[in-house]
Amino acid sequence: MALVSGEILAAFREHFSNASIPTIYRAPGRVNLIGEHTDYNLGFVLPIALEMSCYVAIAPASHGQLRIFSRDLDEEFDLATDVVPTASPMHKWHDYVIGVAREIYKLGAPIRSADIWIASEVPTGAGLSSSAALEVSSGLAFLNSAADSVTPERLELARLAQRAESQFVGMPCGIMDQYASVFGQEHSALKIDCRSLTHEDVPLPEGVEIIAVNSLVKHELGTSAYRERVAECAEAVAAIQQADSSVRSLRDVPVQLFQEIQDSIPLLPRRRARHVITDSQRVLDFAAAARAQDVGEMGRVFVASHRSMQYDYEISCEEIDFLVDTAIKLPGVYGSRMTGGGFGGCTVNLVAPGASKEFRERLSNAYHERYSIRPVFYDCVPAQGAGKLK
Ligand code: GLA
Fold this sequence. Notes:
This protein is an alpha+beta fold. About 40% of the residues lie in helices and about 25% in strands. The protein has helices spanning about 5-15, 95-105, 130-145, 155-170, 175-185, 220-245, 255-260, 265-290, 295-315, 320-325, 355-370, and strands spanning about 25-30, 45, 45-60, 65-70, 75-80, 115-120, 190-195, 200-205, 210-220, 335-340, 345-350, 375-380, 385-390. Strands 5-4-6-3-1-13 form a 6-stranded mixed β-sheet, with helices on both faces. It has a 4-stranded antiparallel β-sheet with strand order 10-11-9-12. A 3-stranded antiparallel β-sheet has the order 2-7-8, with helices on both faces. Helix 3 (about 130-145) crosses helix 5 and helix 8 (about 265-290) runs antiparallel to helix 9 (about 295-315). The longest helix is centred in the C-terminal third of the chain and has 25 residues, at about 265-290. Alpha-D-galactopyranose (GLA) binds near residues 40 and 340.
């Protein structure tokens, strides 16, 4: 159930003795349908924004600090406003918020003292972009408190949120999550071109439900493996440049060119490149199938994407493979794949509307029998991107 402003106002007042009425912002999480690890290679991705969101309530204060309270952790972090521009990351949840404040400061906005109350419905470690939801909602809140001194375009909001994560938090992510959180559309997935930073809406056919399944496991490899993959893609680009010096990123390599020159790329970067290049193409294939209402083809592309992540990009894990392999044998399931950065988190599944009850029951029982964990299911309905809560 989405949080409503009345509850947030009451909780804000209960925590802070601040007589001002806070302004509340919402920014959604996302589920990526297809195109994984293609964003930092400037390829295509196809996420949908979710109803599950992070909420930030902000009101001006006179104590000279940013007082940041997390309802979910029941923890407050305070920092004097004049320290924000030179603060270092502390490897805690508030790094995301401080990183965003710093980026907005760099755009020329003063950092004003404020009380900030935060609550999120987006589960952490699930691959549903809880961090982007926090960054984007905090970004809107700080921009509001900076008043008219700086009013960046919505694209700049996504970009500054991404910079906060890659440069301050230290996770060298691409733009997909923040972009989806800002630009989400009801009824549609977003086909984002990560080179031009533009998108097209891709309406989804009615005869299919999108269900994310949280494995509730997250293997610790996360950030280090992500960094490794970024480096391996750069190695692949360097090798391809020997054959074609005009190539600047894997985006510049169509599938056919890759097939012609792949033998000249050392084996490991070759496999990484094969995943990125074919998955970016699969975004286009999936979008075309969605437009043609061809759910069977959408499902086939999904499974091909999973196999590519499993064998070529090597970012899946046993529990996720089990969820995918079990799901695709169930009646009414068109396709299943891991979503997000990898090594755990969620699968995303395309399920025929009448089949979803049986899908949940049977998948839950099989996973529980194998791992003694009950997975969590989320209905994924495309929702609107970030904004002020009414
Ligand atoms: C994480 C990153 C994104 C993207 C995905 C993988 O969510 O934040 O930028 O690279 O992993 O597709």
